[in-house]
Amino acid sequence: MIIPEDHPYRAYLEQQGVDDLSPISFFQFHHFRNNQRDYAGREYMKLITLIMQHQATKGHKLLWGFNAQKQKIAQYWKDTLEQEKQVLEQEKQMRLMTDDFETGSVPNVQTEASTSTDAVNAADGEKNLPKKKRKAEYEVEEFEAMVGQLDRRLFWRLVCSGRCVEDVLIKAARDECKVQHHIHSLILFTDDKYTQDLFTSDEWSEIMTTNWNPLPTLSSRVMSYLNSFNKNKIDDLHEAADASLPINGRYNHEEHWVYRWIRMTIDNWIGLYCQRSEPLKANQSESFWRYDVFGMTNSLLRDVPDLVVVHGEVTSEDTAQRRNRDRTLPTDGALARKKTGYRCDGLVQVQGHRSLNIGVLEAAKVFDNTGSKFLMDIRKVTRELHDMLRNRLRDLLVHTRARELILVGYVVSGPALLTLFASCPGGYIARIRPHHTEFKLADTIYQFNLNLRILKHLLITKLILTNSSAIIQEVPVCWDDDSEADTTDYNSPSTSEQGVNLPSLLSTPVKKRGARIIAD
Question: Is the domain of 70 the same as that of 173?
């Protein structure tokens, strides 16, 4: 069993020396007990067990190092480490010979006597190779194949500079990004500083404003009802919630549901603030924030025909289509299983004989906009939105509405809510634009009026989704396919007669283990 270079026990052995180990703490013992499937986990557990049997003392927090009875085990680890160095050195020589052959230079084969210094470098693997020889951690062939299928006549050319956005992203992806990035799929994530730095300030301003209209506004009646809850005392909030709904005549669901939805949400939040345990200040689970606090997202669209929020652990059909686009009947062997799409916490769908996704929701238990979980959720939602946007644009019947289509992503992170808007402003570019404000639920009743911003913003996203649903279901004036091209907006430099066809997302690189087994 080989210990990889970045393994903590490997570094410990090299630092202390195999024959004279310092005390091993209980922390290390529990770490390897909980990671028995790690590279050397089981063997190390056997080692720790022997030490415990011979030298552990009840109540002590340190297990002292090897004695004479463990020298055989220590020698085993020393031999395996030496064997690993030899294998890595052989691999390096083969890799250098291959690289030299491809570049046309003469192979430089070193003798065993000259490898004393290189043995250390070989242990680092590819990370010590020259930058130009480092292997890119994304599917290069897939990326180049995607670029080769693009039609340059449809590229998004910026008015202020004359540069094409696609050219800028492709050049940066080839020359600078050695790991998979949004730009490999021609995605402009507007909060990404690296992407911003690829353009001048004038270019970025044009990118942000092209085919982007200000967010819609709510009616004065809805705003007035929201303002009636502009209170910071429990009694005043109860009084406002108990007041009659601002409707005239009989209740009409499609017209008056918004007021009932606001009051139901306020009532639920008041109950949370009244609890003596103060749940909004405590460390809660993901499901608490998703359903107890932001559960009103499930009923937000109940008054919109053909729109529904599907919540729970659901999979994205759009991602599944991309992952299975090359699935065919095999010529040898059994048919491979169909791959599933991303698992997410909610989907916004236009219902019909085939449900069409136009929104996605992800939830997490802790708000940390620099944490790994938050960043990975943003990346996941971005990829989901791209898959949805690509399919919705491809299936549009009225191609001139393509640049108006906007999809919405919701990220619930503890008490915070972030929204992302996905659109195709020009060419083959997908623009993912996070809203400039991260809305956060107040943890005390004295700041309750700040919560009204959350409800207002959710109602605005509802208007956007309603408009997107109408665009998707719109039919052309002429039923004849041959004449449908007459509806194309020829004034738009990025709208073709065949509609907008975004390139597919680049596949996620397959994770590879850094260690290999050479002995057992």
Answer: no
